[in-house]
Design a protein that fits this description.
The chain is α+β, with helices and mostly antiparallel strands. It has helices spanning about 1-30, 35-50, 55-65, 70-85, 90-110, 115-125, 130-135, 145-185, 200-215, 230, 265-275, 315-330, 385-390, 405-415, 425-430, and strands at about 220, 225-230, 255-260, 280-285, 300-310, 335-340, 345-355, 370-380, 395-405. The protein has a seven-stranded mixed sheet with strand order 1-4-5-9-8-7-6, with helices on both faces. A two-stranded antiparallel sheet has the order 2-3. Bound molecules: 3,4-dihydroxyphenylalanine (DAH).
Length: about 425
């Protein structure tokens, strides 16, 4: 392969020689002996590198002739040497170039991967490649040979660059195909089972109740679990020192804060933030110092509030009866019993007919033979509460209710101990 560069180098030397010989011939014309000798010596020197015995021999003879000052002979020798030198075959350079290009293209086409291709690119087109060397030599060539040799070198560069580009695309395609084949996924293999969670039994009831009210056009409202004494008690008509406070075994925090004992403070927050009409349902966690089979320190509540013109107790009963049928089944009946809450007047408790025995089984595990289940507290919003939030009790009336979805879930799923709901035992929770 180095032959392409060697040929170009030889051509460069030949042109040097030809020039020397031409000058010697010029000197010979004027019979300037010392000059002949010197020119002839230089020509011989150039011929040495030429590696062409023919030139060297001619030059040697020219030098010999010069010694004897045989001017005409010398002039003839020099003329022939110059002629021969200028004929140094440019075609050979071109032939070498195309052989070089063909071999390099074949090697490029055979490159097995992109790394090998890059190695070949450096070898053929890099800074110390033959092509670069040839391009540097062009300047030393006889003027008439430059365009040809330069053109040949540039064409070789372009051809090799094209070949590399084509092969690079092929190799990229081949490598991508191989990678895709290696990464192929067998979609017929059985999947890895994904451990699915399930809804907590209390949350199932919360969802059913909230869904029901959202279906009636109620909005979901929420409030903080750390609540002020004012929202949790005072604004609900339970002023400081009132005996009703002692019923709600409260967790007191610093600075007048409590863990909310019910979701009723969300009623106050909602009414303070908007004008009537109000229709909201408010699920959330609540806290009391209590722990036995039917009480846990944390439990859930769902509050409801409707304030509008002309709201009556019959709206309350009809709404809650429809809700009970939605959660416990079409056949359940409801009844209201008088009760007492500070923030409602009148106040009631709502019972639901036993959805298991319907009142027919004296040994029923769910209603214990009573036929009825206590469901929730409710009532007509006390005018004092409406006044506290700036609503006019002469214009607006409302009903409110609060229920315990944990208790409802106990009844619905037949669980005897509420504490199981919050102990986090997966064997229990996975059943729902
Ligand atoms: N907040 C009461 C409690 O936790 C339940 C309650 C009763 C809420 C009557 C109400 C209501 O909105 O009107 O015991």
């Amino acid at each position: 392969m180095a032959r392409f560069a060697r040929e170009a180098a030889r051509l460069a030397d030949a042109s040097k020689f030809a020039e020397q010989a031409r000058r010697a011939a010029e000197a010979a014309k004027h019979l300037d002996a010392s000059k002949f000798a010197e020119q002839a010596r230089r020509a011989a020197e150039a011929a040495k590198h030429l590696d062409v015995s023919k030139f060297a021999e001619r030059a040697r003879r020219a030098a010999e002739a010069a010694k004897h000052l045989d001017a005409s002979k010398f002039a003839e020798q020099a003329r022939r040497a110059a002629e021969a030198a200028s004929r140094v075959d440019r075609e050979q350079v071109v032939a070498e170039a195309s052989r070089f290009t063909e071999q390099a293209q074949a090697a490029i086409r055979a490159a097995k991967n992109l790394a090998e291709l890059e190695r070949l690119r450096i070898e053929y087109l890099g800074r110390s490649s033959q092509l670069t060397e040839v391009k540097k030599l062009v300047r030393e060539l006889p003027v008439e040979a430059r365009p040809e040799v330069g053109g040949v070198a540039n064409r070789a560069s372009r051809d090799l660059e094209d070949a590399i580009k084509v092969r690079a695309e092929e190799l990229a395609f081949i490598e991508r195909e191989a990678r895709l084949r290696a990464e192929a996924v067998d979609v017929t293999l059985p999947g890895v089972p994904y451990p699915k969670g399930s809804l907590h039994p209390s949350m199932r009831v919360v969802d059913e109740v909230v869904d029901f009210f959202v279906g009636l056009g109620y909005r979901v409202a929420e409030g903080p679990e750390v609540e002020t004494d004012y929202y949790n008690f005072t604004a609900l008509n339970i002023p400081p020192g009132h005996p009703a406070r002692t019923m709600q075994d409260t967790f007191f925090l610093d600075e007048g804060l409590v863990l909310r004992t019910h979701t009723s403070p969300v009623q106050i927050r909602t009414m303070l933030s908007q004008e009537p009409p109000v229709y909201v349902v408010c699920p959330g966690r609540t806290y009391r110092r209590d722990s036995d089979p039917t009480h846990t320190p944390m439990f859930n509540q769902i509050e409801g509030l409707a304030v509008d013109r002309g709201i009556t107790l019959s709206h309350l009963k009809g709404t809650l009866a429809a809700m009970a049928r939605h959660v416990f089944g079409e056949d359940v009946k409801v009844r209201l019993r008088p009760s007492y809450f500070q923030f409602t007047e009148p106040s009631v408790e709502l019972d639901v007919s036993c959805f298991v025995c319907g009142g027919s089984d004296p040994k029923c595990k769910v209603c214990k033979g009573a036929g009825w289940l206590e469901m929730l507290g409710a009532g007509m919003v006390d005018p004092a509460v409406l006044e506290e939030v700036g609503y006019d009790p002469e214009e607006y009336t409302g009903f409110a209710f609060g229920m315990g979805p944990d208790r409802m879930a106990m009844a619905k799923y037949g669980v005897a101990d509420l504490r199981l709901f919050f102990e986090g035992d997966l064997r229990f929770l996975r059943q729902f």
